[in-house]
Amino acid sequence: MNQIASECQIEIQPMGLRTCAFYGAGLHESLVEAGVALASDCETGSCGLCKVVANGPGLSGITDAERSLLAQHELDAGIRLACQCIVQGDVRVYVPASSILPLRPRELKPPKAPLVRPEDFDPVAEDGTCLGLAVDLGAAQISGCLYDLKTGEKLADAGMINPSAAFGEDAAGKLNEAASNPQGAKMLSRFLRAGVNALAEGAAVKAGASRLDIKRICLVGAPGMIRLLRELPLPGLLAETGRSVASPAVILPAQDLELDVSPQAKAFLPPTPGGSAGADLTALIMALGLDRSDKPALALSMGVDAEAALYLPQRDRLYTISCPPGPALEGAGIKDGMLAAQGAVERVFLSGNSLIIKTIGNVKPIGLCGSGALDAAAALLRLGVMDEMGRLKRKAGGVRQGEEGLEFVLVPRSQSGSGRDIVLTQKDVRQIQIAKSAVRTGIECLLEAAGAAPESIEHVFLAGAYGSDIHLSSAAEIGLTPNFPRARPIWAGAAAGAGAGMMLGSLQYRLRADRIASSAKHLNIKKHPGFNRRFALSLRFPPPQSHGAKSGNAGSSPALPYAFGNSAAHGLNHLQDHNQAACRLYRGQNKAFAE
Ligand code: FES
Fold it and tell me: Which InterPro entries match (predicted)?
């Protein structure tokens, strides 16, 4: 009796919500009562819309309806139908974006994949349908594009939350923790492979094809993510490997990765520049044509990890670096932080002295995602509520004493969707400072090692899961990057996925990837002279007089975003001969992928 009356705790991610339910309550109704806009069309286990990932023993067993509706790899990955689950104890539930209504369009936004130029495309000479899948394995999200390898036509896009990140907020921290013991790593590998299989299935269904027609897969991601996929030992998903030289491409049967595609399918894992810079950076450099730019160019990929690449054409030198920003950019480590899901504050604007809040899904705010937190910090700086050291001013309007120190009330409880105030605390500001300092320090170390001044850089690209969400003017105001007076940042979107697609369909691009990886000089940020001093200095925010329009200095004005498209991707691809000597190194191996 006691058990029946007991309350169970439900942690709901990525919204960062916590709710209570009585033992025996339905999980579906508990989630809906907690404010989750869970997709459903039946509540009897027949539509399959209410998928969640559940961790912990606090749910009833798998029902017959779940066994018939869910694929084995989904069951293996911990996916359940919420309407079939009874709460029987504490449980952590992860609600994927695809199970939330209305879907956030950006979640499934296809990578802006430039088509492989017809002259570079290598049609696969095989009987029957031959499809290729390009996959970008982000720590937080997985995205992919399906191509017809006989025509080069792009057939479908697919995207999903990385199931191996279903451990809640601070994806990097949790993944690193889980990866640090063999059992945890094995479980993560299983989740990751299940995610790729679900992505392949989703893309194939969208294209009206079968996943068994997928004969080639190109997968890019951080080295830790690729090692996880291959079930290789790893020190930590984002750790510097100490190996600062390039690693060559690997081709292996897709079955070795337990990928549920054609039994004859081959998987191509592109080369990496070294250290913790992965094949995703190689793919990004190629998609942007950074290695062929006729002007000094810098690309910054912002995800759970941050990576940057710098190319100096006058020396034909490419430099790369990794600079993990910590969890703040994904909304973790922030008191009212949450991942970028419905209800998250994603934009904070100033209109006069008033703050304007915009949420994902245009619903009442329930928390702050990474871009919202950066915007909020920039707005507080501009309003004078916070000083250059990041200290909130006790007497400023909106600032009050909270449980953990000073805090600024961004949304009063009367206007929030959670029934409580949404605040930015002094500790939150410190987390934002750490994130922005890591990124800025990485870029400065890269420039210094290359002997390049910010004034000499003429192209700056922002890419990656968070890079595309960040408001450029806010990034400039908080000093996320140095001031590049001759460059206006260009959105590059999910360019790494586009690069994976290019390698999938062309031997020339696979050879070029080899050249990129083998010619890049990778820097270990922690070994860079003066790293600690530079990091400490970068914690400061820029002085108010250099903020955007206030400064009157055109060089420090917030940059305007430009659309990124095929023309931009190829704009830097001026015709420069391949370095045939470098290409030859892996020619035989790369050719084998197409045959
Ligand atoms: S609501 Fe239809 S299966 Fe759960």
Answer: 2Fe-2S_ferredoxin-like_sf, 2Fe-2S_ferredoxin-type, 2Fe2S_fd_BS, Beta-grasp_dom_sf, Corrinoid_activation_enz, Raco-like_middle, Raco-like_middle_sf, RACo_C
Closest atom of ligand 1 to 47 CA is: 2
Q: Cα-Cα-Cα-Cα dihedral of 561, 567, 572, 578, to 10°?
A: 150
pLDDT in tens, 133-170: 999 988 777 889 999 998 888 898 888 777 765 554 45
* Cβ–Cβ under 8 Å, residues 220 and 516: no
Site to probe by mutation for ligand 1, drawn from 27, 31, 38, 44 as the one with most ligand atoms within 8 Å of Cβ, is 44
Ligand 1 lining (C-beta closer than 6 Å): 40-43, 45-50, 81, 83
Q: Residue 385 is encoded by which pair of tokens?
A: 């509520």
Q: Is residue 229 part of a domain?
A: yes
End-of-domain residue from the set 232, 254, 275: 275
Last residue of a domain, one of 44, 68, 99: 99
- On whether the CB atoms of residues 213 and 204 are closer than 8 A, the answer is yes
- CATH number assigned to the domain comprising residue 87: 3.10.20.30
**C-alpha distances in angstroms, 482 versus 37, 455, 542?**
40, 10, 10
Backbone angles phi, psi at 457, to 5 degrees: -80, 130
Rounded average pLDDT over 398-410: 94
Query: What is the interface pTM, i.e. ipTM, of the complex?
Result: 0.99
Bridging pattern class, strands 489-493 and 520-523: unpaired
Number of structural domains (the chain) is 3
Q: Candidates 49, 68, 69: which one to mutate for ligand 1, based on the most atoms within 8 Å of Cβ? A: 49
**Residue among 27, 47, 62 to mutate when testing ligand 1 (max atoms within 8 A of CB):** 47
Q: What is the pLDDT of residue 540?
A: 92
DSSP assignment of 36-98: --B--S-SSSSS---EEEEESS-BPPPPHHHHHHS-HHHHHTTEEEGGG-BB-S-EEEE--GG
Domain with 349, as residue range(s), is 330-422
**pLDDT tens for each residue of 341-375:** 778 888 887 777 778 888 887 888 888 888 889 89
Q: Is 355 strand, coil or helix?
A: strand
Tokens standing for residue 510: 């696979």
> Would residue 145 count as lying in a domain?
yes
- Phi, psi at residue 500, to the nearest 5°? -60, -40
Closest ligand 1 atom, CA of 48? 3
Rg (CA), the chain: 24
